[in-house]
Amino acid sequence: MLHQMILGFDSLFTLDGMLMILFGSLLGTFVGAIPGLGGAVLMTMLLPFIYGMPVIPALCLLLAAHSGIYFSGSVTAILLNTPGAPESAATTFDGYAMTRRGQAKRALGISALSTTVGGWIGVGLLLIVIPFMFQLIKLFQPSEYLVLAILAIVLIGQMRSGSMTKGLLSGLFGLMMSFVGYDPITGVQRFTFHQLALYNGFNITAVALGIFAFAEMFHLYSLKRARTEEGRVNLLGKTPGSGVLDGMKDVLAHPWLMIRSAILGTLLGVVPGIGGVAANFISYGQAMKTSKHPEKFGTGIPEGIIAPESSSISKEAGNLVPTVALGVPGGVGMAVLMSGFTILGIVPGPSMLKTNLDAVFAMAFVIAIGSLLSSAMGLTIVPHLARVSQVPTAILVPFIFALAALGSFAADQSMGQVIAVFGFGIVGLLMKRFHYSVPAAMIGFILGSVAEQNLYLTQQLFGLSMFKRPLTDFMILIILFVVLNPYLKRFRRNPVESKGK
């Protein structure tokens, strides 16, 4: 195993390998800043170019490009409240709030260091996990996937909502939106109203851009004011506490939060379908839950950026586990990577772990190197990127509308999805106005298919005996505690209040 690890690391330091990592990271850095595209679209565009390439350089190109989108995706999330990729949506909450206070460069510094170090932690865990891949995957069965999806929706339902009830309703709304299109089991059309554009359901890019980016643009345009409260951004970094280095110091001041979020992202990435976008929101939620000042989340605090950004690339390291060991992609990007495996003649699963184990280790190292390169390249142009937040609203809003519409069309090649972006923008605006949880709706939509498919499998395989599985029961107890805890707290306070009276 150690010999294969050394071979995988050594194979990167050829001229072809290094050039592909550099070129892929550069592409990812630029494409990640375009809302709606993201790593999966970029990897799809690169697939035709890997025909005839050696295995290691081809994997270097794909994975470096995929890893490179995360920091630049957070750049637009921080400066424009428009996530460059759905994974960056959780960063908008506190990142954009810091931009409005004139601390855009500080927020970008936090994102850059958190993304890189979090990715390295994830890769370190992946290197430890590779020898135990099969045993780790066997822990989760359909019943655990089902309950874990419900747990994620319940946890995120408390974020940015007026009450537990509104949070749960928001999650249920997201679930309902995920049911649009063909039933994956029976093939029956649901909620399509005989519209061809809805047969495949709503695209995740359209939903993310709609309820986050378009909703904020609608709100901003109605206010008719600049994106920063003072009407300016500190471009030179001379104001104390507002520079890139200050952001990096914020990350170093919260090491345990960064480590905890990276570990959580890696573990969630191992579970197929649960990781991806959900990992960033769950990391944000756990940071808020364990914070001494949860009421400050969403107002522009470093912890609100550190948590989701630390899990961004670490979850991709976790996603490699089911992709390589079982041939089950952990996310959309890994599904595209499996297409690359087919082109290169690689069969994921036991045979890959036997014949291409050095390539597995090489992929882990590419993620670590790619995250470092993309953050470094992104930081070199931060002074120019920060100027975006000074663009007048009358110019910025139409530009974001056009860019997001193009991104949603590029992701699905359907005008129906472009119309859906506008519709979800109105929905997102109404949810914000009436204090419903936009993150919960997003997570409900993402995990809807996971919950549905595993509900069917659980019924077929276990039935009521699912409640005899210890891991399933443990997660159900967590769900009950999270749901009932606010009411128990209220019940404990009432006797005290009545005594005071």
Question: What does the model show?
Answer:
The chain has 501 residues and is mainly α. It is built from 23 helices and 2 strands. A two-stranded antiparallel sheet has the order 1-2. The radius of gyration is 22 Å and the shape is globular. The relative contact order is 0.19. Residues 225-237 have low confidence and may be disordered.
Helix content: over 70%
How are strands sequenced across the largest beta sheet? Answer: 1-2
Q: What's the shape?
A: globular
Task: Give me the number of helical elements.
Answer: 23
Summarize the structure.
This protein is mainly α and 501 residues long. It is 70% helix and 1% strand. It has helices at residues 2-11, 15-31, 38-46, 55-80, 92-100, 104-129, 133-137, 142-156, 164-178, 204-223, 244-252, 255-270, 277-290, 303-310, 314-325, 332-344, 350-355, 357-380, 382-385, 393-412, 415-433, 438-461, 470-500; strands at 181-182, 189-190.
Keywords:
501 residues; two-stranded antiparallel ribbon; mainly alpha
